[in-house]
Input
Amino acid sequence: MSALIIPCYLKTQWDINCLDRLLDSVQKQSQRFENVYLIDDASPLKYKLKHDFVDFTALDENGGPARARNIGIEKAISTIGADCLLFTDHDCILDKDWNKQMTSFLMQSDFGAVGGMTYSWGNTLLDYYHDINGTLAGKWLLPDRKELWYMPSLNFGIKSFVVEQFGFDERFPTAAGEDVDLCLRMRSKYKIGFCPEAKLWHDYGYKNSISGFNKFMKLFKKYKSSSATVYEGHTVLMWDASESIYKGNINESNLQS
Output
């Protein structure tokens, strides 16, 4: 039994369009979710959902995506007893078999969590850089590359009994670092597997390579700002770009949409 948890903080019409597009892809899943939890983190922009299958919660105060996910986790476990909790973001598009692949991997393996394969939705040079760099991809543990050191939460699944022991740290106020922190803590007891068949696409929102450059820089500055909080909880933090999951590391057959 799987539940999907989506934290969101919507500021523009583009954000709303992204959310509608994501929920369209949720509706087209070959294996349906038992429930879908959308946790609105006190968005400044008001909107009306077009999809009636969503369990919607609007928070009164903004507390960050870590807190929003924890609220979704509590609801999924307490209301439907979900075995597998899957996470994505409002600016993603799921492959039709994403839930099937993520859930099957968790249920048929000893891994406590799983990460899938993330691609850029756009076709600018900046999007291409993210695919090569593995900006929102997981990091492999060498040499076998069957286990992940960490996986960003936009393409992440975890067993319910594991997340009950290792929840998201709500000291992280923005969507940066909180997923790395959770993975590093849970890896003290459980392993994170990699499922390349579980594919999704992330929309960075670049109109073109020139106008999008400022947004591109702000993204990396945001990730950098979270480093102090991550380092505070983890005295040894190793980073090797060669371990990134990107298109050159996987079979060509996995690149087909």
